[in-house]
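Hi team,

As requested, here is the filled-out complex form for the adenosine-5'-triphosphate run. I kept the field names the same as last time so the parser does not choke. Let me know if anything looks off before we queue the next batch.

— J.
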Amino acid sequence: MRDLAIHIEHLSKSYEGSGREAGRPVLDNINLEIMQGEFHVLLGSSGCGKSTLLNIIAGFLPKTSGTVNVNGREVVRPGRDRGVVFQNADAAMFPWLTVTENVEFGLRMQGVEKEKRRAIAQEYLQLVGLSSHGSKYPHELSGGMKQRVQLARLLANDSAILIMDEPFGALDAQTRKIMQRELIRIWEKTAKTIVFVTHDIQEALLLGEKISILAAFPQTGIVKTCRVEFPYPRRETDQAFIQQYLELLGYFDFGGGI
Ligand SMILES: Nc1ncnc2c1ncn2[C@@H]1O[C@H](COP(=O)(O)OP(=O)(O)OP(=O)(O)O)[C@@H](O)[C@H]1O
Ligand SMILES: [Mg+2]
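And here is what came back:
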C-alpha cells in the first residue's frame, strides 16, 4: 500500500476583487487523495480552477478554507519537495539567464558545484531536444521551446512531486507526443508523484493512472475521479481507450450536444 503524498480536504478558494466572480468560490469543497508515485491528472475546461488548485498545492497561493497536506505536512509555502511547470513559461524563466543557467538555477541554489550542475542541465536539455540551444536567452526561444526549458529545469531539480500545469499546451503535435512518452518513461523510472493539469481528454487518458474531472464554471468541485486500467504505452486507437474517452466526454457539457 502506497502512502499518501497529497491529501486535500474541504478545500475552498475565492478570489477577492470586484469582478463578476468576486467572492464566489472558484474551488469549493475539493477533496482529493494522491498516493506517492501516482500519476494523477486533473481534467477540466478553461476557467474551472485547475491552475488555482495547482498553485495552492505548490504553495504559491493561499487557500480560503480547508486543508492541503503534502507528505503529512500542511502546505504554507513553496518547497523543494514540489517542482512546478507553470502554464505561463515567460513568467517562470529568468530573462537575464541563458537556457542552461535557467535549467541549473535550482541546483545552484542548492550549492551543487558548477561542473556537476552543468552536466545535469545538459542531460535534461538533451532529453527535451534543446541541447544545441543552451546558450540562448529566453527571448530567443519559441513558446514550445520555453515550455521544454521549464520541463528540463523541473527534472534537473529532481523534486519528489512534479506539479505540471498544461506543460505541453504550446507544443506542436509531434513534439507533444514525444514529450508525453518521455514523461511516462521518466515517471516509470523514477516513481515520482505527478499532478498534471490538462483540458484535453486524450492527453489525460494517455498519461493518467487516475483522472479527476473538475466541474466547469459556475459549478465547482470534483465531478468524478476514475482509474485508467489499461497499460502503458497507451494508444488512442485501442478499444479500451476509445471506450473510456467516450465515457469521460459524457462529463463535459457542450451546450446542445456534439
Ligand atoms: N488572481 C485572480 N484574481 C481573480 N480571479 C482569478 C484570479 N486567477 C484566476 N481567477 C479566476 O478563477 C477562475 C479559475 O481560474 P484558473 O486560472 O484557476 O482556471 P484554469 O482552469 O486554470 O483555466 P485555463 O484552462 O484557462 O488555464 C477563473 O474564473 C478566473 O477568472
Ligand atoms: Mg490554467
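Two things worth flagging: The first helix runs from residue 50 to 58. The first strand starts at residue 4 and ends at 14.

Thanks,
J.
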